[in-house]
Design brief:
It is a single chain. The two termini are 24 Å apart. This protein has one domain: Alpha-Beta Complex (Spore Coat Polysaccharide Biosynthesis Protein SpsA, Chain A), CATH 3.90.550. The protein is of the alpha+beta class. It has a four-stranded mixed sheet with strand order 3-8-5-11. The protein has a two-stranded parallel ribbon with strand order 1-2. Strands 4-12 form a two-stranded antiparallel sheet. The protein contains eight helices and twelve strands.
């Protein structure tokens, strides 16, 4: 995003008149549509403008709390920071710099999830960006067979963008990361070409599937998602198909 006057999560949408909303306000709206009221922002030291903007959530009819990142090794470690507070609850994961359609995807995902015994359910949409996304590989029965992360697999057509899981997956991730750090104290994944990257949540979902956890999905065939956290996308919002400047909550 380049040099910004604030954290990108509270960056006002450009060109919006009246009371503009900020980037991460979309995620709050998506949660509210699903009846989700308890929200944790997990932030790094210095991003104090985020709690400064959202405060305790009362203005948004949400209960908002804040946690600080401890281990800066990637998204799974960030999420795991909330484990003591969410270990007995269902968790709905969304990303503050991602917009998506349908806006009630969390509601549909939650309703589907509660009809199953799944440990985790993924919301998926058509996605052609296989080199930069977590893509879904299905078996012959239409079940998730594998998570393919940022690989040259043009045959794969769908990627996941949100998730809901039970305490069983929260505990799995906690134990997984503890074991991972014992073997990889720098928190990095070594790739076949000898380079390294951070561990992704997709790695853990993939391995949980291999370890026998039930990973389900709901396909939003007409849906899409877009990561707003890049300069190019942010500067060309009006050209995004299906995008409308959101109203302030």
């Amino acid at each position: 995003m380049g040099k910004l006057p604030c954290s990108k999560e509270v960056l006002p949408f450009p060109g919006k008149t009246g009371r503009p909303s900020v980037m991460s306000e979309n995620l709050i709206r998506y949660y509210k549509l699903a009846g989700i009221q308890n929200l944790y922002f997990i932030i790094r030291n210095g991003k104090w403008d985020i709690p400064g903007y959202f405060m305790d959530g009362a203005e948004f009819n949400m209960n908002i709390a804040y946690l600080l990142v401890n281990l800066p090794f990637g998204t799974p470690f960030t999420i795991n920071q909330a484990y003591p507070f969410i270990k007995n609850n269902l968790v709905a994961l969304g990303f503050p710099d991602v917009i998506f359609k349908p806006e009630n995807a969390f509601l549909q995902l939650k309703n589907q999830f509660l009809r199953t015994d799944s440990d985790i359910i993924l919301g998926i949409v058509p996605n052609s960006n296989y080199l930069t996304s977590d893509m879904i590989e299905f078996n012959e029965q239409g079940k998730i067979n594998n998570i393919i992360i940022k690989q040259n697999r043009p045959d794969l057509r769908f990627g996941w963008f949100i998730a809901i899981w039970r305490p069983s997956f929260s505990l799995y991730m906690k134990k997984y990361l503890a074991d991972w750090l014992l073997k990889n104290p720098d928190g990095k994944v070594k790739l076949p070409d000898g380079t390294f990257r951070e561990i992704y949540l997709g790695d853990i979902i993939r391995d949980s599937l291999k370890d026998g956890m039930q990973v389900d999905h709901l396909l939003f065939n007409e849906g899409f998602y877009k990561d707003l956290g890049t300069r190019d996308v942010w500067q060309n919002l009006n050209s995004l198909e299906g995008f409308q400047h959101p109203d302030r909550i």
